[in-house]
Amino acid sequence: MKKANQSVETDFILSGLFQYGHVDTFLCVAIVIVFAVALMGNIILILLIRLDTRLHTPMYFLLSQLSFMDIMNISTTVPKMTTDFLSNSKTITFLGCEIQTFVFLALGGTEALLLGFMSYDRYVAICHPLRYPVLMSKKICWFMVTCAWTSGSINALVHTLYVFHLPFCRSWVINHFFCELPSLLQLVCQDTSTYEYIVILCGLIILLLPFMAILASYARVLTVVFQMSSGKGQRRAISTCSSYLIVASLFYATGLSTYTRPHSLHSPEEDKAVAVFYTIITPLLNPFIYSLRNKEVMGAMRRQLVECVFVHKMSP
């Protein structure tokens, strides 16, 4: 084992989500299927938004960004986890762990901010429809996306560079299925209490503030809908908003649970279970919540299928 004050890099060992047994083999297969479905659902949604001109609106532009993040997010953890389980090799290089930590933090932070911007889009569309073309212009949409990516990436870069310059001396075994910040801090052999407060503060800013903005936006949307719509419209609005809020709550609540607690309160098994929700379940649910319950997306899918059939029949 290398000493803490040495700068020589070594491989980490990921304990993984699975142990070896029939039940865990079944869970591994189930997660691979979920991964494939999530990947396919998000790719189809991106293609539909790109191909159908009727979906070239601010809402679907932001939604395509969300789908891209979900593809990257689930691809950051599941392939490595599955490969480790099948090959019985649980090692990850120091650089590989560093890259995985940065990519995951960047994507998570960016998605948290983007979901907040998406709720603002719905708020403007319903509460200020006449000003929507001005308040959600193409320039403003790009500004929102750029802010989300830049803020998420800078936050991830700062945390990654700091953590991987700390001395790891307790163990090189990460009790997790990927390199996540709280699990890495448990391997550090110096006092990290001050830094943990910084992590909690960043978690509150990046996760809690957008979540509060989402709750406020949808509360205002529902208020306006109840004042203007009939009973049928009200029921439809409640159904749509509740679906979005459930998925958003799942993402933010699990993220806050992980990143706003000191590591002394963390349980490795609990952290693994919670991480499954924001690394696997949320990327699976997002494309279906935002598409299957959306008439415009389903209409675009039907038009593309009809066009494909027509082109196939016309080809010699």
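(the above was protein one; protein two follows)
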Amino acid sequence: MASFTVSHICCTSMPLLPLFKMLLFFPFFITIISAAKLTTTNSSFSMSFPLTTHSLSTNATAKMLSSSLMLSSRNTKAPSSSSSSSYNLRSTFKYSNVLIVTLPIGTPPQAQQMILDTGSQLSWIQCHNKKAVKPPPPPPTPSFDPSLSSTFSVLPCTHPLCKPQIPDFTLPTSCDQNRLCHYSYFYADGSYAEGNLVREKLTFAPAHSTPPLILGCATYSSDARGILGINRGRLSFSSQAKINKFSYCVPPRQVQPGPAPTGSFYLGNNPHSTGFKYIPMLTFSQSQRMPNLDPLAYTVAMNGIRIGGKRLNISPAVFRPDAGGSGQTMVDSGSEFTYLVSEAYDKVREEVVRIVGPRMKKEYVYGGMADMCFDGRDAGVEIGRLIGEMVFEFEKGVEIVVPKERVLADVGGGVHCIGIGSSDKLGAASNIIGNFHQQNLWVEFDLTNRRVGFGGADCSRLG
């Protein structure tokens, strides 16, 4: 869902970045919130939730939440106020394009499914609107009922966030008939969410919760889930909750019928991080803000692409922001496919055509953005074997290696597509590394040290 007010791509049933998610992406976000601290008592702790890959019709239940929450003491020394407690968030999902996490919102907690999105800032939940004259159809997952939470409050119109012309905050806000702060969020794929800005806490256990965080409480939306916005913006979940580090491991897509694959999500230190390889996170000062740049994205310096062992003739400059901000390369969990600007996409397509051009599906574009597709239920294996592995090269010799078995995505109807789309067709000016190319890979965002780490793993076997 690309946002017209934010720019990003994240989450729809299409291949891509709906909320930069298919969110189109030019998110310039908020400057005002005082960051909250993760509350602990006298021991540091770790937590784990069911993070499963769900089909969009799967219901979230309180049973799911209680069975997935695990709180374990790590030591007897209390963490400092600036530290973040680590916990493992897992959720099952039908891995078609998004990562769904189930979080405990409110007091007492209500299980809410949210799309984990490193490409957007505002987090919002589906709220139950009992008083609506013509309420929208209920979502397939339980919505949040504010009347059941003792820690819920709505931001008034007088709150600074509800005033227009706030630097770095382009989310349209207004004062509704009840003098409460109303917001509207529109994405590039046509999806939307609107409701009130509120304060609410995440309650992991009686003694472990966040202070109230600013969230969107959507009473009207075109998506069944909420969004966990976790980019570098001041309003993001990680910023408000003082999370200094987080990581996730995306399991391989489910190809054959069977149990849904399970991935892992940590807030804080990851016990698997010993072998991670890190690259610097590019950041941009206020004076460097450019029209096509998303300054709050997790931007990295990519150097090149190899296909079947052949390094394509693409200048590293293509993967870095130019004078107008076009060309930045970002890591985005809310985008399904990877997207490349034309200078890089054309070279990739040229090589694919050279190798398997006669097999390519003619005049076919999946989701309006991916046009390297092939017919045949075995095409994923056959074409992948011919193309070979694909490698994204970064600084310091760090690489994301995509094995030939996962070069193509099964998009249904016996069609398989290379998991790369054109940024131009998307309407974006950036290179985006989507979750399709993050399978079986730990991805860690170390906010304190401004770096992104990668580590190979069998993500479906992590407990």
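Reviewer note on protein two: The helical segments are 62-68, 237-240, 342-356, 379-387, 423-426.
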